[in-house]
Write a structure and sequence with these properties.
single chain; 756 residues; alpha/beta; Glucose Oxidase, domain 1; eight-stranded mixed barrel; four-stranded parallel beta sheet; 14 strands; 44% helix
């Protein structure tokens, strides 16, 4: 029986359009009843016992009149793998909301799958979909006057889009004198990576043997490298690069290539769907939204869709946030910013997330940029506490299994280990449970907090792999800012590229780069076409070889072809693959995943190549992936003016990349160019810009990213940025950052005894 009005939760505010406007009470009872009826049928169809319906149109009317919490269950589209199981979770949430005295509503937003969109026009809509989702969520929440949300969180752009929308709405409603917007995020479970069927694996081994026998042991080695990964859509792309080379060399027939492609594809995804097991944008978003305090720990890392009991635990705490303004989405986000930046860094999160995190803060109404985020990141050392691997049984599915077994507590464990290792985590920041991090970590007597609970194969660590981690913001003399994921590069890899001089190979678009990077004769073409000036090549050899401690005696007598080959073998020929005109205005800022995979699949290239683009990245190549270059080519950025053969200085630890004076370089001096090199390229820039404008027309005019800020400002609509007028640094105290940006650890103390 429905509880008396006096015992039901109520949003305390004089504003209630459902009391003052009869149309809502006339329209919505039938939708709520239908939602609950469908929810009950859904769970009954799954064989779960469900109590008899206790809702009627009159009961729903009374709750709307009473201002019971109106909570939207926000899902995604069923054409996205992470939303395959939405109906069950949505049903459980709706029934739990009703049982807890609220009024449930449901709506879904289209969610673009980045994996599906790779290397097609969908990538030009991916980032734009983030802003579109934010706009749609605000529209629906405002139009139907919902107080809060239960968010079925997926991957790609959806999580931070919904965070941005709800934070934006929270700030707006407070400005209007209305109650805070509250929300709980329940991420989709982790999708178990696929396995290569035994028969297919045997055939791949035979292909590797055939490749070695045909004089191409590098193809065999690359094939074995790729076979070591869990099977997922991204590893399928890596296979494609190796297969293509085998076909080009006549080792593999095109027909067998397609058969391999089919066999791998149909064994990739589990039928229950979920968020892929690699630590890309999907799981980075999971970790980041958790670090913002917005993910309930009961559903944070699951290997199966959430149970009725788990969903009810989330809803129970969610309803408890009513009438607590300190638990509004914007407030929780603001006070967890330091935690979010540090946890993202420590877990080796996606480069994409820096842009989305900046955007979310702007949507919340605070002035913020990539440089403010970098200030938090660099205020205190952030240790590398995430030993993730797709080849050694340490993927995110394995992490979820450790959490489900109770060995560790997911992001609570990472927050605990960060604090214990001296990172200035704000343990007094509020979270979606209605309690602070300090209170959450104290539950259960600290049981399961230590990363050591994971046993012999931990993913979250108690002892750092190295003292620093995260995504760095770079500066240079031909751009204002860019980002690079140092956390994805082992120290030996950083050593191999840091302080080296590289030669630019310039591409005007990703398609051209992909075609070249799949060409098995690419290095031969560079050598035979004299793509690089001989004097510059010799100068780079002298500098790079000396920097890596290699012997240069006698190499001055080598011919240019022999020197080129020697530099390839020794890894001293460093090449910067520059892919311009991929920024938000130019082409929607697609992700440069495919060219990186082609590089990773080529044993020779990956020792040589760094990729630089005004497009996006979520991961790294074997070199470095430098993205989000500002200003972008379409806005006159100097990345538009670079051409093949230009020398640049890669200084990752110094956080700089500079175009060099080629004349000084040949004379033995590494001197940044002062602008003279690019000044004479107006005609080249104009020609490229004309081609860029023509290429833009391939993207639907309705969905082009016009009227937005640049990547350093989150690529948000100008109107959002213009309304973000509250100074971030005066609105909050970020742990570890004083007014001068100096680290302070005084507020950090151990939260529990650490297991030895």
């Amino acid at each position: 029986m429905d509880a008396p009005l006096s015992l039901r939760p109520r949003v305390e505010t004089p504003i209630n359009p459902y009391r003052d406007n009869v149309q809502g009470k006339a329209n919505e009872p039938i939708t709520v009843a239908a939602i609950l009826d469908r929810a009950r049928k859904e769970l009954l169809s799954e064989g779960e016992w469900v109590a008899e319906a206790d809702w009627s149109l009159g009961a729903i009317y009374d709750r709307l009149e009473h201002n019971a919490p109106r909570i939207a269950v926000i899902g995604g589209s069923p054409d996205h793998p992470a939303h395959v199981m939405d109906p069950g979770t949505s049903a459980r949430a709706a029934l739990a909301i009703w049982a807890r005295g609220g009024v449930p509503f449901t709506f879904s937003v289209p969610v673009l799958c980045d994996g599906t969109a790779q290397s097609n026009m969908g990538m030009s809509y991916s980032l734009q979909s983030r802003n579109a989702i934010a706009e749609m969520v605000v529209n629906q929440m405002e139009a139907h006057s919902y107080h809060g949300a239960f968010v079925i969180q997926s991957c790609d752009k959806m999580p931070l889009a919904v965070v941005a929308a709800l934070a934006h709405l929270d700030t707006l409603r407070r400005h209007r004198g209305e109650p805070a917007v509250f929300a709980a995020f329940a991420p989709a479970h982790v999708l178990k990576g696929g396995e290569i069927p035994a028969g297919v694996r045997q055939e791949l081994e035979e292909l590797a043997l055939a490749s070695a026998a045909a004089g191409h042991p590098e193809i065999a080695e690359d094939l074995h490298d790729t076979m070591a990964y869990i099977l997922q859509c991204s590893s399928n792309t890596a296979f494609q690069g190796v297969f293509h080379r085998a076909v080009e060399h006549g080792i593999l027939s095109p027909e067998r290539h397609k058969a391999f492609e089919r066999d791998l594809a149909i064994n990739t995804c589990d039928s229950k769907g979920g968020i892929c097991a690699f630590n890309g944008t999907g799981n980075s978003s999971r970790h980041l939204v958790a670090a913002m305090g917005l993910v309930h720990p009961v559903v944070e890392l699951l290997t199966d869709p959430p149970t009725t009991a788990q969903v009810d635990a989330v809803v129970s705490d969610l309803v408890g946030l009513v009438n607590r303004p300190e638990c509004g989405v914007a407030e929780v986000l603001l006070h967890n910013m330091g935690n979010a930046v540090r946890l993202h860094a420590a877990s080796g999160g996606s480069t994409n997330l820096l842009m989305h995190l900046v955007g979310a803060v702007l949507y919340a109404g605070y002035s913020f940029s990539i440089h403010d985020l970098d200030r938090i990141h660099r205020a205190a050392p952030i240790p590398d506490l995430f030993d993730y691997s797709l080849t050694q049984g340490r993927d995110i599915f394995a992490l979820a299994k450790q959490c489900c077994s109770g060995d560790i507590r997911g992001m609570e464990t990472l927050v605990y280990e960060l604090a214990r290792n001296g990172a200035p985590m704000d343990l007094d920041a509020m979270t979606v449970t209605g309690t602070t991090w300090r209170q959450r970590l104290a539950t259960g007597g600290g049981l399961g907090l230590s990363a050591d609970g994971a046993g012999r194969n931990p993913i979250i660590l108690s002892t750092p792999r190295r003292p620093i981690s995260g995504v760095d913001v770079l500066a240079g003399n031909f751009f204002e800012s860019a980002v690079v994921k140092i956390s994805g590069m082992p120290e030996a890899q950083v050593d191999h590229f840091d302080e080296q001089v590289a030669l630019v190979v310039a591409y005007e678009c990703e398609e051209d780069a992909n075609d070249d990077l799949l060409d098995i004769h690419l290095l031969d073409r560079w050598r035979e076409s004299r793509a690089f000036d001989e004097a510059t090549l010799r100068a780079i050899w002298r500098h790079n070889a000396a920097d890596l401690g290699l012997d240069t005696v006698g190499t001055g007598e080598m011919g240019v072809d022999a020197l080129f080959d020697h530099m390839v073998v020794t890894g001293t020929l460093k090449v910067a693959i520059v892919i311009a005109a991929q920024g938000p205005v130019a082409y929607g800022m697609p992700e440069m995943f495919t060219p990186m995979q082609h590089i990773n699949a080529n044993r020779a290239l990956r020792k040589l190549v760094t990729v630089i683009s005004d497009g996006r990245y979520s991961g790294v190549s074997h070199g470095a992936a430098i993205g989000h270059v500002v200003p972008e080519a379409a806005l006159g950025g100097d990345i538009l003016r670079l051409r093949t053969g230009d020398p640049i200085h890669l200084r990752f630890r110094a956080r700089r990349i500079d175009l060099l004076d080629p004349v000084a370089l040949v004379a033995g001096q590494v001197v940044p160019d002062t602008g003279a090199l690019l000044a004479g390229r107006d005609e080249l820039a104009a020609e490229r810009m004309a081609r860029l404008r023509q290429r833009q027309r391939r993207v639907a005019a309705s969905n082009r990213m016009v009227g937005c800020t640049d990547a350093s400002m989150g690529v948000v609509p100008f109107a959002v940025a213009e309304d973000a007028t509250v100074p971030f640094w005066s609105a909050t105290t970020v742990g570890g950052v004083s007014s001068g940006g100096v680290a302070s650890h005084a507020a950090i103390e151990p939260v529990a005894a650490h297991a030895d």
